[in-house]
Design brief:
Radius of gyration: 20 Å
Order of helices and strands: HHHHHEEHHHHHHHHHHH
Number of helices: 16
Distance between the termini: 27 Å
CATH superfamily: Farnesyl Diphosphate Synthase
Number of domains: 1
Number of strands: 2
CATH class: Mainly Alpha
Structural class: mainly alpha
CATH topology: Farnesyl Diphosphate Synthase
Strand order of the largest sheet: 1-2
Length: about 325
Amino acid sequence: MNPMEYAKQLPELFKKLHQDFFKDTPDNLYQPVAYAMQSGGKYIRPLLMIYANELFGGKQEDVVCNAYGIELFHNFTLVHDDIMDHAAIRRGKPTVFKKFGLNAGILSGDFMFIKSLQLCVGSDSQYRMELFDLISKTAIEIHEGQQMDVDFESQDMVSEEEYIQMICYKTAVLLACSLQMGAIIAGTSKKNQELLYEFGRLIGIAFQIQDDYLDSFGDQQVGKRIGGDILNNKKTLLYISSAKLASSDDRVKLIEWYQQQTSSEDDEITKISEVKEIFTRSGAKEYCKDQMNKYLQAGLDCLHKVESDYSKSKLLSIADLITKREL
């Protein structure tokens, strides 16, 4: 069964777990949580955990609660990201804070975070401390990455190294954590755990480079407005590489655009159009594609080094799934 076919089974399985782990009242706390968890998605992180566990002979029931916990954690980060980004739409639906209010968004997100830690660690696992150390380290790094992302908005220039560190923390470490958690619960060697972690970290960087690219050059079908990163002055690799590669005139224009906040829809359309033209003229579009492929290949090299008697095809298909969206 391919990952997407398998992922179709997870909503019902997770719905049952949700009913087991969550109460119904107070409504204003639990309804936003249920809404966030029913908003769709590809369930990449729980799939990575389940497949990593299978790679060393584990079974779904060994990790399903932990896998639900990692999906809960991921959705918590989306709830709070949307608040910080003032995003009205997520996966084609109103974001949690837009539907239920700002206070509900903050409180339900906090609750999801705490509950996710409980589920990720488990109550009776012999690996409880290892799992706790990993998920708590990951949580700290994700928050550091989020703050770096916010800080970058007010800086004229950000280095490529700083950007890679930011997306590694904000996005890639949770993919890496999911894989290593599955490997820990399966009881495999530290070397295998570390290789799987690095596989997840590197394909996560590739994924985020691509995601930032699609924010500017994708289409509306991904459920987000095209050009949102441009309007929020986010220093993605498109911006960083364009500032480095562009002509002097285009570099000045680019920095000027990123120092402005638009006040009307017409201004927003103009800003997005002008900046995208600079991204294209400078060669930043092609550079981003090349970098995405570089990190993807490095991640695949790590996966190939993992010692296992079981097929790696499912993990390979996940890597392909998240990095082969149309560019």
